[in-house]
Design goal:
Layout lengths: L5 H12 L3 H7 L6 H13 L5 H10 L5 H39 L1 H15 L9 H14 L2 E2 L22 E2 L1 H15 L6 E7 L17 H9 L17 E6 L7 E5 L4 E6 L2 E4 L15 E3 L1 H7 L1 H13 L7 H8 L1 H11 L1
Parallel strand pairs: 1-2
Antiparallel strand pairs: 3-4, 3-8, 4-5, 5-6, 6-7
Length: 346
């Protein structure tokens, strides 16, 4: 588009001041402010410069002129998307900075703890042991040696939840056990691509059977259970939309699917069609329908670990397009084989 000469600019200004918009459109069709012309036209027709809305309604109802409406909708959509994306990037950056700061401030403690996990992980050989054998061995080691409950004397270090389960403390909840399991699995073989997953656990699920792993609970937690007066038929509240549990997803080596491992409630499941199917149900149940035990909660996942958020959601999206035989994998990773492995390693 050519630049306006000084003479043309003066001419346009004069025509605008004189409100000679017809001449303006004829002489400079690409240089005019159509919004200003519309305002003038609306005022001439309605007698009120503040009734431009009448003009727009007439254009739609009488002349079916949708061009301006489409432009505004398109402009608004682009603006909203840009604003949302900018906010997402900014919040993600802040969350990452916070997690990084926590790590740097506690680097010695975290690294020292992970060195001990590395020693434990070095005992495993993924080329000689099956994925199920490794999962069951690590899960049994963590769960049977961890008392479920809270030790309020132990401080959590950001999303390095595992550090709570140190040499001085064997009391922890799902996030502590899951993060420890996830970290060890990646140390054994990075091809497992293990990640923590924030989920909602439905405690009213029927016919769910955990494998034969001891599940100790702290004395404090057992007292809390006895003293609890919460009614069993209490209605669920809006908390069902938020995560109340943490599990691990991992990819068996040379496979294109992700398993879901719940260390706290020892069991194994599968990620398929964006849902989580658990294998630990009674033999008479159809495992292809057992997706009401745990459900993914992306908001909590994002807040908890913005680093892995994109990758996890990508894998969940891809699970819609994978050809997975749930019954076949149930024969491989199901309750019966879980307990067979446990008999072998105990």
């Amino acid at each position: 588009m050519s630049k306006l000469t000084k003479k043309e600019k003066i001419d346009i200004e004069n025509l605008e001041n004189e409100e000679r918009y017809f001449d303006l459109c004829s002489k400079y069709p690409k240089k005019i402010n159509y919004s200003e012309i519309k305002d003038f036209d609306a005022e001439m027709e309605t007698g009120d410069k503040f009734k431009k809305i009448n003009y727009d309604i007439r254009n739609l109802a009488v002349y079916h002129d949708f061009n301006d409406l489409k432009y505004k909708l398109k402009k608004s959509t682009i603006f909203c998307l840009a604003l949302t994306t900018s906010a997402f990037i900014e919040i993600t950056g802040l969350l990452k900075l916070e997690q990084k700061k926590i790590y740097l401030d506690n680097k010695e403690t975290i690294d020292s703890y992970d060195d001990e996990l590395e020693k434990y992980a070095s005992k495993f050989d993924s080329s000689k042991m099956s994925t199920l054998e490794i999962i069951m061995t690590v899960m049994n080691e963590i769960r049977s040696n961890t008392e479920y409950g809270f030790d309020y004397n132990e401080e959590e270090l950001g999303n390095n939840f595992r550090v709570v389960l140190n040499d001085n403390n064997k009391v922890g909840v799902c996030r502590h056990m899951a993060d420890k399991f996830t970290t060890i699995m990646n140390m054994i073989d990075e091809r497992y691509e293990a990640q923590n997953l924030a989920v909602y656990l439905n405690q009213k699920t029927k016919n769910f059977i955990m494998c034969n792993i001891e599940q100790p609970a702290s004395e404090e937690y057992q007292k809390e259970l006895k003293n609890s007066k919460t009614e069993e038929n209490e209605t669920e509240d809006n908390d069902t939309k938020l995560a109340n549990h943490m599990v691990t997803i991992l990819k068996p080596i040379d496979c294109n699917y992700y398993l879901v491992v719940d260390v706290t409630n020892p069991s194994i499941g599968l990620l398929d069609n964006g849902k989580i199917y658990m294998f630990n149900y009674s033999e008479n149940d159809d495992n292809s329908k057992n997706n009401d035990y745990i459900e993914y909660r992306p908001f909590n996942e994002y807040v908890m670990d913005p680093y892995s958020f994109v990758k996890i959601n990508n894998e969940i999206l891809l699970s819609y397009f994978q050809n997975i035989n749930i019954k076949e994998l149930n024969n491989l990773y199901g309750l019966e084989n879980q307990n067979k492995i446990l008999k072998k390693i105990k």
